[in-house]
Amino acid sequence: MPETSLSLLDRLRASPDDTDWSRLVEVYTPLFRTWLTRADVQPTDADDLIQEVLLVVHRELPMFQHNQRRGAFRCWLRQIVVFRLRNFWRSRGRLISAGNDSRLEEQLRQLEDDGSHLSQIWDREHNLAVARKLMEMVESRFTETTRLVFRRLVVDGADADTVAIETGLSLNAIFTAKSRVLRELRRLGAGLLD
Question: How far is CA 113 from CA 5, 41, 48, 68, in A?
């Protein structure tokens, strides 16, 4: 990945390259697939719908204006998924104004509603998927010890004293390692994660 101060989202909006688009696809395809499966979409149809969602993202991302509100990008993605799902099920006669499939329509309504429980689940799963991928992207930039410190402190929730004993590092070194990884994750994840 080129060393730049721009986040992945900023690069995708300003001057995307194939590597950046591949990373976006790699990050979001599993999340989209999970949600399409929950909406009763068969795997072969899910592949097509994922491509449709990604095409909309590709086409519309240069015009996307991040409003600086928490979760603006993930909310935008969720709305695209809901829109594509609605079109998909309408084309198959499952969403009719008379309410042919009220469970599916209710699920889409909840997913559309920023304050619903289902949207909160989307938000959590989105953040976990993106964080996992960002960690993979930055791992090679740090030593094994720095990665271990970060994993123990942030992922496992161990306290700094325990990690210092485990690694033989000073508390200052522990917090410096954590800070370096967090700074890189924030840089890359700007706009993708809160």
Answer: 34, 21, 25, 19
Tell whether the model's pLDDT for residue 133 goes beyond 60.
yes
Report the C-alpha gap between 108 and 111 in whole angstroms.
5
pLDDT, tens digit (0-9, with 9 covering 90-100), for 60-119: 998 887 777 778 889 999 999 999 999 998 888 876 554 556 788 888 999 999 999 999
State mean pLDDT over 140-162: 93
Domain segments of the chain as ranges = 8-140, 142-194
Two tokens at 28? 């979001």
Per-residue confidence at 194, pLDDT binned at 50, 70, 90? low
How big is the CA angle at 86 (ends 82 and 91), to the nearest 5 degrees? 150
Name the pTM for this structure: 0.76
Whole-angstrom distance, CA of residue 102 vs CA of residue 184: 45
Query: H/E element holding 66?
Result: none
Topology of domain 142-194, CATH: Arc Repressor Mutant, subunit A (1.10.10)
DSSP reduced 3-state for 104: helix
Catalogue the long-range contacts made by 70-75 (C-beta closer than 8 Å, 24 or more residues apart): 70/194, 71/123, 71/194, 72/191, 73/9, 73/191, 73/192, 74/122, 74/123, 74/126, 74/127, 74/192, 75/114
